[in-house]
Write a structure and sequence with these properties.
By secondary structure, the chain is α/β, with parallel strands linked by helices. The chain folds into two domains: 253 residues, Rossmann fold, CATH 3.40.50.450; 259 residues, Rossmann fold (3-Layer(aba) Sandwich). The chain is built from 23 helices and 15 strands. The strands form three sheets. The protein has a nine-stranded mixed sheet with strand order 1-2-13-12-7-6-3-4-5, with helices on both faces. Strands 9-10-8-11 form a four-stranded parallel sheet, with helices on both faces. Helix 9 crosses helix 21 and helix 13 packs across helix 16.
């Protein structure tokens, strides 16, 4: 047997907390329906594509004094997309609820993500197997993958596998794209009278899968606390050595929730927010000017050090860069099969081919970039045909351009300080951390609740647990139709239904907290040092959730 660390031994014993409505088990629940729903946009198109699952009501559960019985159900579960802390607890909660309802129920885990349900690769969970993974990070219990479930052949194969195992429900644990797959699979199963239900669970450390019913996606709490600890450590080092500017790129391709939350927890000197850059139409040069101004003013105050937090997806939100990347994504779809591009012997030849194909303005932007960035923009695309922004070293691009700007200012006598920079990218460091008590509780509740949705015969729903700033006993369990969160977006050159990403709201209380303090934090070292995630001790330390959720919930409660 693998030797366990002392912390892992203790965490395996932790019993996650449940909403009071779920504490008596799924056989003692009453379903309460809300009003009918519609998609966030493109209602007619989404309704046409999901004719059998569109417009369903939101639901909540409340406990009853009576206890019913539950027929035997076999359920399959899939971990989909990138890892997020707490995934194991979703499965543990699902397993415990399933066994609580009927000890004869079985839970199958499909291996390697969505491909497992297509290829028929699975494992059956047992008490001893699942007990080794409770309250641990990672997705290693069954592995994950990024296979998209969207074709007729895939749906047919998934159906055959479910038939062979007697599976009557599938739970897909994933982010916006994975739950879009869940919606498509649910629609197909209903349309073809298979009798198989599909329930989703909201996972993504990016925090961009949320709405009024989904207050936070799981993993966001743990990941941001992990990144904040690292940033706090760097700030302590910078404040000690007083000689480096640290540029920290942090997870979040489409939304800047992670960067914003980490900034609120640590209070760095500079925080860029992609959504603000786009809204203000800030050019790359204006961003450089903004950052350089703070660096110069701090140097004039004798501070040749500082911390800058940069969201991973920043480069796509800079208008001229976003336009160029969009154009590049389109032409790369054809260049990947173009012999002249494939057979180009040098990277410079590829640069020339790309610049020739790009629109004139976009070609100029591409040509102006350092060779390192130009090459990274040509790297393999993601499953949607888009550039993989995590591979673009935006932090190094900013350092290089700021260095050039400071050299110009120095030659003019307008900068007399020193500038030495260190770059960091925090991504994988937070995806598989031991889940915080909040995520351990929340994920377990999401999984337990997912089986409650199954037990009531629902399909095409996302497991929802709300009121998350209150003690866990006061959380509200229920479900929201997946189609309610959808709109139409362009993917691989075609308009497709996808769950709409929730971006940072510039008029919301979370961004306002940053905006109100930005100048003070820029010049005065208000660094906070969150330290490591705490699992034992007073709830004021161990059970706190993110600043983001606290501010958003405070605003919501104030408006009630």
């Amino acid at each position: 047997m693998t030797k366990l660390s002392p912390l892992q031994i203790e965490r395996l014993q932790y019993q996650p907390k449940l909403p009071s409505s779920l504490q008596s088990g799924v056989n003692s629940l009453e379903l309460v329906e809300g009003s009918a729903t519609q998609s966030v946009r493109d209602q007619e198109q989404i309704k046409a594509l999901f004719a059998n699952t569109y417009g369903k009501p939101t639901v909540t559960f409340k406990s009853t004094s009576s206890s019913g019985s539950s027929e035997i159900k076999n359920v399959g579960v899939i971990l989909s997309g990138g890892q997020a802390p707490g995934g194991h607890n979703v499965i543990a909660g699902l397993y415990d609820a399933l066994k609580n309802a009927n000890p004869e129920n079985k839970l199958y885990g499909f291996l390697g993500g969505p491909s497992g349900i297509i290829d028929g690769k699975y494992v059956e969970f047992t008490d001893s197997f699942i007990n080794d993974y409770r309250n641990t990070g990672g997705f290693d219990i069954i592995g994950s993958g990024r296979t998209k479930l969207e074709t007729e052949d895939q749906f047919q194969e998934a159906f055959k596998v479910c038939q062979n195992l007697g599976i009557s429900a599938v739970v897909i644990i994933g982010g916006d794209d994975s739950n879009t797959n869940a919606a498509l699979l649910a629609e197909w199963f209903v349309k073809n009278n298979t009798g198989i239900q599909v329930i989703g669970c909201p996972k993504t450390i990016d925090g961009d899968l949320k709405n009024e019913q989904i207050e936070i996606s799981f993993g966001f709490d743990t990941a941001t606390k992990t990144y904040a600890e690292l940033i706090g450590n760097i700030q302590r080092d910078a404040n000690s050595a007083k000689k480096y500017w640290h540029f920290v790129k942090i997870m979040g391709r489409s939304a800047s929730h992670v960067a914003l939350e980490a900034a609120l927890q640590t209070q760095p000197n500079i925080t860029l927010i992609s959504e603000e850059v786009e809204a203000k139409k800030m050019s790359l040069s204006s961003i450089i000017d903004y950052m350089t101004d703070i660096i110069v003013r701090r140097a004039n105050a004798g501070k040749n050090f500082g911390i800058a937090v940069i969201p991973e997806g920043l480069i796509e939100f800079i208008p001229e860069m976003g336009s160029m990347i969009s154009n590049l994504n389109d032409i790369m779809a054809t260049l990947e099969n173009d012999p002249s591009f494939i057979n180009a012997t040098t990277i410079r030849e590829k640069f020339e081919i790309v610049e020739h194909r790009l629109d004139d303005a976009n070609a100029s932007v591409y040509a102006s970039l350092p060779a390192l960035i130009k090459e990274q923009l040509l790297a393999d695309r993601d499953p949607h045909g888009n550039v993989q922004v995590s591979k673009i070293e935006t932090e190094k691009l900013l350092i290089e351009m700021i260095s050039t700007k400071l050299d110009e200012l120095k030659s003019q006598g307008d900068f007399i300080g020193k500038f030495s920079a260190q770059s960091h990218f925090f991504g994988y460091e937070g995806r598989c951390a031991f889940p915080s008590n909040f995520d351990a509780d929340y994920c377990y509740s999401l999984g337990y609740n997912a089986f409650a949705l199954i037990n009531f015969g629902l399909t095409g729903y996302l497991s929802s647990v709300r009121n998350l700033t209150a003690p866990a006993s006061e959380w509200i369990a229920g479900g929201v139709p997946l189609t309610m969160m959808m709109n139409m977006e362009k993917r691989h050159g075609e308009m497709k239904p996808v769950i709409q990403k929730a971006l940072v709201r510039l008029n919301g209380p979370v961004f306002k907290q940053l905006a109100d303090n930005r100048e003070d934090w820029a010049m005065n070292d208000r660094y906070l040092f969150p330290g490591a995630i705490q699992y034992f001790g007073p709830s004021s330390v161990c059970d706190i959730t993110t600043v983001t959720l606290q501010l958003e919930r405070a605003k919501e409660l104030a408006s009630v």
